[in-house]
Amino acid sequence: MSINQPSKLGTVIVVGNQKGGVVKSQSSNEISYNLQQAGHKTLCIDMDWTAGFTERTFPDGMPFEIEREPLKHEFAPGSAHTYQLFFSDTVIEPIVLPDGRHFIGTTYELNEINYRPNDCIFDFKDRVEALKSHYDYIIIDSNPSYSNVMVASHIAADYLIVPTLLEKSSRNGVAKQLAYMQKIKKNYNPALEFLGVYVTQAVVSNYKKDLLEGRFTAVDTENLRMLFEILHNCGYDESKVLAYISYVSTTAKEAIELGLTFKEYAPTSLPAKQYDELTQKLISLIQGANRG
Prior knowledge:
The chain is α/β, with parallel strands linked by helices. It has one domain: Rossmann fold (3-Layer(aba) Sandwich). The protein is 40% helix and 14% strand. The chain is built from 10 helices and 8 strands. Strands 3-4-2-5-1-6-7-8 form an 8-stranded mixed sheet, with helices on both faces. The longest helix has 22 residues.
């Protein structure tokens, strides 16, 4: 690692849900961008081998720093590939994005880590510990399945946040994610803490009504009730739902297609403001926990 700068007290946040398609990669993009714009040096690590975060960060093609030999049959990870973090002696050089964030990306081949002896997860933890001294925040976009890669992301993290949609499979993914977090906390990382859940793509019927009294559609309201039940069963209350991000279909589709955050593409849009508020809430919660 050739980054030379004063030591920082880096905080690692893993973004995870045991269900794909919950806007995990885009929200990782939004939160990390907002952290950087707020003056916090931020590193993004894509640990979902579907590479959604990586592909939207580099919509014009995969950089050679992530995949050195893309046209050959053999896998040749570059120095900015997440794969390298699972080894104790590899060169790691994050890509510096135009907005100031640093980025370590992935490709499908990261899945190969799941067939290695599971002690590689501790090499990963050591490499992330070394990176923490260079950053204020490290945002890890985790994968939605219990595996070496998923466990590694959690044993290296300080905090977990869980995005979800208001529908059955997504809230069930929240329940599984919290169960896995508690298992990993008990066996590997007792310092791991749950910051909260945030609802993505919320379709609001009436902003003037209370959460369970008509703000959302009847189906979404029932799913929210069940999400609250899941939290209660895990020992948490409704305050752990940190944000309800409104769904603006055209803005969302166009921003994602262009590889932009909402703040870059439509800074006055409701989702841009809500992700900014969520980011500030995360900072406040972490600072409060550190003071405590």
